[in-house]
């Protein structure tokens, strides 16, 4: 249903395959139609995922997947809109959009492939690289603290915040299904091993630490405490969820019908008369 | 000209100079006058000098006057600032407490302060209303027409607002006794039913007619009033206004919506446009229609945020990295703004490319009295494939199919079997990323063919001829200098070529319309002569003179006349 003629060109063993398979399974199990799904993406290995899923895809600029997605959702709220990003794309280049997307609570799903490194540019540190992380451009280790996207998403007002792991397809697939069904801004930060450039945060490294949460926290403060855990245990699962009106639901105009289907009778004569 | 009057209201920011000025313009318009008005203000919320200048005439006028006949000065600084513009026989309406004596001008004293002390927080704005009352009396305007307008303007507001404005108006009106020194009088005529419309309003209305449903913006002078227009009419015209976190987001939201099938508009100025550049290039590659208003203001950087300039002509033409087709239109007045915005949406959709509407602060906020515009318009959404029978069940639709015209049909999300990949990477017909040299060249050539197709359609529409068609003296300009040059033509014997489409540059048309052996004078509101350089680049025409101005102000009529007279 969602298969394309072309196959992915990610490195063999890349965490992106797990994300790709989870996503296709989630779409299938939700019985979604390819024509009703619009993907957007930015630049990086993550940006290519929608090329290999049979659905609509707008692959834009580095860091700008979210505003494209918000635009599509504003235009046609009947579509399922999924923005695909990476840790460089979304947490460096597009951080501003990420924060405002969360507070806007736009009904867009944001799945971020977070491999804690820049892959496509061949191995520089990313905003989520752990402090002291050694790369080609940081031979003495990174000197900046890692950014915590889950904490930012919760603090910024997103109404569904989760962390998944590319090495656990059944779990990630369920998270994606929940995110897609959620009404409002849904963020999944996905731990994704980069087998070529990140020799520290490997499948084994994540597997050892990934700790499944039973249920989401019921307040933002509690959720933030969970989000802060990053050490021997890294919580995965839905960390925060709340039921609030989405951006699109707060726009009176869009309650009538999707913007693109509106065809108002406009009184242009009145517009001219106002100026007389 | 006896039938003409130039009036100015000036004071600190916070006096409601603009809205009172607009009201006075309306009064004269309803008395059968043609009106042109503009406003100058600094980039601050309180203090500084704000002024509203208006010219009214029984004849058609297309710019402000160079002189002021009646100045309403709400503070002494206003007199200092504008005294150089006062005409012989002019008058200044000011507070009785202001000690000033200006040669050639008579002083009309009004107790502004005393009359408005009781209004507390509303004192300042009501001082402006007193000034309107005094102006009406000085010019011999009947009370009734003004009072009707005050009531109309504040309709639906707190009755106290109407009451105090009426009172302030009457007090201002009655405080002037017969004034023998100031002889200019209004000759009452029939209201011609004209609109008072500025560039921003004109293009807002046009966008609504064109079926635009989304304005995605980050506020920036001088285009912010387009946002205000959309918010004011969002219910009645079913419009959506999205205020984004920055201009990068604003244009990407618009591109997303446009990709999904909704006509969208973006409006900004130079700095915001700079942030949008990468997305303009994306629109070029992904072939997404986009209409972008670039209201120029003096740069570099923040420049003079509330003043005017035409320094972004080349920047608009070259916007976005790489070679890709785009359209840049340069309206010269409110009517052009209206007409070219209507066109911009159709061309942008038809050729699936970004269309930039280049205005400036002077054009954006100057109001002109004009008859209603024609509303006949056919929306052309271009090639959109939505017939399921025509769409095969392929894994991906050929979004970038190679065609003779370069235009490939697009599908909108939601269309069965229309799934495709629209993309900023170089791609094949299906939108898959490619690397091969031959494929790259093929796709570049396909996009270029759209530009060639568009050029053909635009032939003959890029240059408008004004003035004396037989004259060898040829003034060439673009954008908001139009109205000022047309005024100058009343004194100059010259032909004026207004370039309305600046990209693709109408070289052949310009050559033909300029004629052989003509003396070209290029008039531009910028330092480097950007239009002159385009003319030199695209034609063999010899430029006799460049008349340039870049002090953040528009040209005056006399500057054009002086600059062109002895060429």
Which descriptors apply to this entry?
heterodimer; A: 276 residues; alpha/beta; Rossmann fold; 8-stranded mixed β-sheet; 10 helices; 18% strand; B: 567 residues; Pyruvate-ferredoxin Oxidoreductase, domain 3; 4 domains; 7-stranded mixed β-sheet; 21 strands; 36% helix; globular
Question: Overview of this structure, please?
Answer:
- The complex is a heterodimer of chains A (276) and B (567).
- With 276 residues, chain A is an alpha/beta fold.
- Chain A has helices at residues 15-29, 65-75, 87-93, 95-104, 149-156, 169-181, 203-209, 220-227, 252-256, 268-273, and strands spanning 37-41, 56-59, 80-86, 109-114, 117-118, 124-125, 160-165, 186-191, 210-212, 234-241.
- The mean pLDDT of chain A is 97.
- Chain B folds into four domains: 5-193, Pyruvate-ferredoxin Oxidoreductase, domain 3, CATH 3.40.920; 197-370, Thiamin diphosphate (ThDP)-binding fold, Pyr/PP domains (Rossmann fold); 383-458, no CATH class; 463-565, 3-Layer(aba) Sandwich (Rossmann fold).
- Chain B is globular.
- Classes of the chains: A alpha/beta (276), B alpha/beta (567).
- Chains A and B meet through strand 1, strand 2, helix 2, helix 4 and helix 9 of A and strand 7, helix 7, helix 9, helix 10 and strand 15 of B.
- Strand 2 (56-59) of chain A pairs parallel with strand 15 (421-423) of chain B.
How much is the radius of gyration of chain A in Å? 20 Å
Can you tell me the CATH class of the largest domain in chain B? Alpha Beta
Number of strands of chain B: 21
CATH architectural designation of the largest domain in chain B: 3-Layer(aba) Sandwich
What is the helix fraction of residues of chain B, given as a range? 25-40%
- Based on Cα principal axes, name the global outline of chain A: globular
Termini separation of chain A (Å)? 58 Å
In CATH, the homologous superfamily of chain A goes by the name: Thiamin diphosphate (ThDP)-binding fold, Pyr/PP domains
Content-based structural category of chain A = alpha/beta
CATH superfamily of the largest domain in chain B: Pyruvate-ferredoxin oxidoreductase, PFOR, domain III
Unreliable stretches of chain B: none
The CATH topology annotation of the largest domain in chain B reads as Pyruvate-ferredoxin Oxidoreductase, domain 3
User: Regions of chain A with pLDDT < 50 over 5+ consecutive residues?
Assistant: none
Query: How would you characterize the largest beta sheet of chain B?
Result: 8 strands, mixed
Number of domains of chain A: 1
Main beta sheet strand tally, sense and closure of chain A: 8 strands, mixed
Gyration radius from CA atoms of chain B, angstroms: 26 Å
Estimated share of beta-strand residues of chain A: 15-25%
Percent range of helical residues of chain A: 25-40%
CATH class of chain A: Alpha Beta
Category from helices, strands and their pairing of chain B: alpha/beta
